């Protein structure tokens, strides 16, 4: 398919009032498109609305208003086709403890109406590295193996879109590498569109072509990963002095330049490239009588962009707490 795998227009979800609490708007007029064949990151702080959005895509939560199209199928017009176009690997380890991995995959395939002759149980077991555990009860599998099984269950019906909800939370490095290797293969060889939510921002920066950041039920940014990081004008110059010339205060630092301490006596001078140059900062360091052993620059990363776009939520929360106190 060319074009968009996911198209969301003015999506809203409001949960009804419960126990005297006012109604809660989890999604507030979300517009979102995901290009077919992309590895797409959906990021946001806790409570931003990511899980609600994913559950609406999966057909587990009813939206309040708006339009959702998955692989060209409108959820309201073609609900069965839209659900069949997406597979979701949930964050929670929810599975029947008395089913084996083989049985779990067979049952899941049956729920999606996959005929027996078209099922790929053995192929999926090999893909997720559970061939040797195919007949073991799920209750006897390790946490990492259970997470692999969740991935397998999401693949039984050959979805066009695969959603990975915090797939590497609490898993070891080996499993994380295996998961990303399989994800890249599914994307490159099968053309599967991948939507990833994660709190490991370095993973998102490495894996995703494009990223959307959700904050308080709204999309506050959507762009290519490179462009999103490139929006930041901040940069850091890290200066490590010779052992006999520790860095104290640096008089004459331009307004807006922030100095922070690093290990081994180094300091980081954070500045905006449009206002100050690295050469000017080095001149100030040398003018202070500092002998420089090493100097390097640090570019902004996805974590910096994420914090710049969502940090106001923390500020308002702390302000409300202070007012309540």
From TrEMBL:
Xref: InterPro entries: AAA+_ATPase, ABC_transporter-like_ATP-bd, ABC_transporter-like_CS, ABC_transporter_ATP-binding, P-loop_NTPase
Keyword Zinc: no
GO MF terms, alphabetically ordered: ATP binding
SUPFAM superfamilies for this protein: P-loop containing nucleoside triphosphate hydrolases (SSF52540)
UniProt entry tagged with the keyword Nucleotide-binding: yes
Domain ABC transporter: 6-241
UniProt keyword list: ATP-binding, Nucleotide-binding, Transport
Domain of life: Bacteria
PROSITE patterns in the record: ABC_TRANSPORTER_1, ABC_TRANSPORTER_2
Classification via Pfam families: ABC_tran
PANTHER family for this protein: ABC TRANSPORTER ATP-BINDING PROTEIN, ABC-TYPE MULTIDRUG TRANSPORT SYSTEM, ATPASE COMPONENT
Protein's name in the database: ABC transporter ATP-binding protein
Higher taxonomy: Bacteria, Pseudomonadati, Pseudomonadota, Alphaproteobacteria, Rhodobacterales
